[in-house]
Amino acid sequence: MTAFRIPHEHGSPEGENSTYVFPKRGVVIDPGPSGDRPYATLCAGLDDRGLDLTDVGEILVTHWHSDHAGLAPRLATAAKARIHMHVQDVPLLSDYAVARRRRTRRDAATLERWGVPAPVVSNVRASDAPSSIPDTVPVVGHEDGDSVVGLTLHHTPGHTCGHVAVRADRTLYTGDAVLPMYTPNVGGSDTRTDGENPLATYLDTLDRLSELDVDPRARPGHGQSVCLPERIETTREHHRERVRAVVEATPTEEMVTPWEVARTLFGEMSGIHAKMGAGEAAAHLTYAETLGFVERVDEQPRTYRATARSKQAVERSMNH
Fold it and tell me: How many separate domains does the chain show?
């Protein structure tokens, strides 16, 4: 089941977005960011392979982020195609206008809970520009293991609640679950996960991906390809190091917020980087709390202090 890739060379700090097209199946995975330029790129990529928009019947979206889902409504309308997502991410596209208002309010409240100063929260909200996605969009919701035209959807939460990877025979299309150059953000990329343990969820996702009987060379949502086993282990090691760094940035004699830990780790942040940085710190603090390396002292704002557990204990417990 052969697919070809259309690269989008703009619109994302993770690098060029990847759209995948299965011409014989009439399937597109992650059409790309909204806007006229990405749409022209998509149409040109189809035309180069002798395809018309009307040859597209099904659109699979790995997650709700606009750099992956943004063009889905426009393509669906032009091609008279159906959009498919995991049920947990469906509302953020299907009820875009309402869900966006709820999300920006939730993001702000979560940032405040993480100790982010009010001016930075205001900057985050101001920089969160709306997409050209319509207010409402028809979307078909799916669960883990569902199939669309012979492609299997694997629920891979962590980066977002409803993230999916798509398997075509032995080839896995990972979306943002595994990337060749970056580790996907956990915590700030979907603030619905606050109050849970998003890093533990994501590490479980990596375990499940490791167990799939697929080719080691996978197709990511950014870039051309990724060696799945190697990159999964690199990503696990990244999170081991990040937990160690978070614990080291949390003193035993005073309380710190996730924002203060993020500032120690990442320095000055604004806009989306402030949300992602604070979310990373919050997710790793939550994980470290479950391991007994830090303890939560208060909730509004959320504060932590380190326990007497050693760095060696961090190493042992992070060998997930």
Answer: 1
